[in-house]
Amino acid sequence: MSPATDLPPLSALSPARLDWRRDDSGQETPHSMAFDDGYFSRHDARLETEHVFIAANRLPERFAAWQKARPFVIGESGFGTGLNMLVAWACFSAHAPPHARLHLVSTEKYPLTRPDLARALAVWPDLAERAARLIAQWPEPVAGVHRLWLDARVTLDLHLGDTTQRLERLDGRVDAWFLDGFAPTKNPAMWHPALFAALAARSRPGATFATFSCAGVVKRGLAAAGFTWRKVPGIGRKSEMLAGEIACPPQDRRRDPTPWYTPPASPVPRHVAVIGAGIAGASVAATLARRGIRVTLLDRQAPGTSGSGNAQGALYVKPAAQTNLQSRFYLAGLLHSRRWLEVLDPKQDLWCPSGVLQLSTSDKERKRQASFLARHSLPKSVVSGVDAANASTLANIPITDGGLDYPLAGWVRPAALCERLTATPGVTLRRAEVTRLEGNPEGWMLWLADGEHMLADQVVIATATQANNFPQTATLPLQPVRGQISQLKLPEGAPTLSRVICAGGYVTPALDGVLTFGASFHPNQTDTEVREGDHAANLAELQRSLPTFVAALREAGAELEAGQLTGRAALRAASPDKSPYAGPVPDAAAWREDYALLAKDATRVAEIPGRHHRGLWISTAHGSRGLASAPLCAELIASRICDEPMPLEQPLVDHLHPGRRIIRDLVQSKSG
Question: pTM above the 0.90 mark?
Answer without folding.
Answer: yes
